[in-house]
Amino acid sequence: MSTVDELLAADRTLLLVDDDKTFLTRLERAMQKRGFDVRIADTVAGGLAAVSEAPPAYAVVDLRLEDGNGLDVVAALHQKRGDARAVVLTGYGNIATAVTAVKLGAVDYLSKPADAEDVINALLATGNKPPEPPENPMSADRVRWEHIQRVYELCDRNVSETARRLNMHRRTLQRILAKRAPK
């Protein structure tokens, strides 16, 4: 085990940044049970303040927050503490964002919903060995639904524009949007 790994093993400080309060509370409890000293924030501003006050050894940051982009928190953490390990969570994942997250210092990029075990495996993976794949990855239907939701949000919730960009009939899109997310 390297010196950096030893330091991180001793320092179990963790910052959780997510605007989904229910998810944030659940993940906070789960991580505390696993021995982490957890601080939480529900905005980019709160995450940046926590990083500047006392940079944690670990961070789990949602990509899209109400007041901005969670990658700003990852970048600030990497500047303050180069050895910190950050994981980015998102329900709106794409390859370009994942690459940007890694370039800014994130060690992994997980799609929501992620459970505590997936997060811990990503945070504590060492060396060049990637973390184990998730036990229950998202289904193809869920990935499709997430993509449609992402484009819908990027089109400012305009159904006609979203349907045009997805090359889909407007009524078909309306039916998809009216349904619950698949598992």
UniProtKB/TrEMBL annotation:
Gene Ontology molecular functions: DNA binding
Highest taxon of source: Bacteria
Domain Response regulatory, residue spans: 13-127
Any single Pfam family the record assigns to this protein: Response_reg
Protein name, per record: Two-component system response regulator
Organism: Devosia insulae DS-56
Keyword Transcription regulation included in the entry's annotation: yes
Keyword Isomerase attached: no
Keyword terms, alphabetized: DNA-binding, Phosphoprotein, Transcription, Transcription regulation, Two-component regulatory system
SUPFAM superfamilies hit by this protein: CheY-like
GO terms (BP aspect): phosphorelay signal transduction system
Residue numbers of 4-aspartylphosphate PTMs: D62
